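Feature request, filed as a ticket because there's no other form

It would be nice if the structure record came with a short human-readable summary line next to the tokens. Right now we just get the raw output. Example of a typical job, pasted below so the devs can see what we mean:
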Amino acid sequence: MTDTNDNDLVCVGAIAGSYGVRGEVRIKSYCAVPEDIELYSPLTDETGTKSFTILLTRAIKNGFAAHLGDVETKEDGDALRGTRLFAHRDQLPSLPDDEYYHADLMGLAVFDTGGTQLGRVKSVQNHGASDLLEIEGPGIKGTALLPFTLAAVPTVDLATGRIIVDPPEGLL
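Raw output as currently delivered:
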């Protein structure tokens, strides 16, 4: 699951446009169990002002076809393309100690194993293999992508807002 600016909202998916001509939309789910996105309905947009009830109709390539409350035409669905869908944190399951919502990692201070601050977590990305932390900081040219593994990120301390990293040689 991914990020939002409001700590109470967690991004659980996105609308990828219309699907067919009868008002269905394509939904991308960011949930560990993709079908669970329907359980968190109604979902909101990033601002929390628009609400969407979701009824999944079938699995399709890279997501689901679904009916959304007020979407009745292909044009309605296309107008919502790119809209990220958010659930309230209290709707979501508690996570085991070694798992984190992406929203909780965003903005955390990044320190090396010697206690030197390297920067902050800019984003959490996943390009198919595993999660990557995008880190930005004054000593980093642009940003750096660090594998979010126990070897590279031995400590995540949400209470203090910091993570300890042991990056591969030459990465940072």
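Something like this underneath would help us a lot:
The first strand starts at residue 9 and ends at 19.
Residues 1-6 have pLDDT under 50 and may be disordered.
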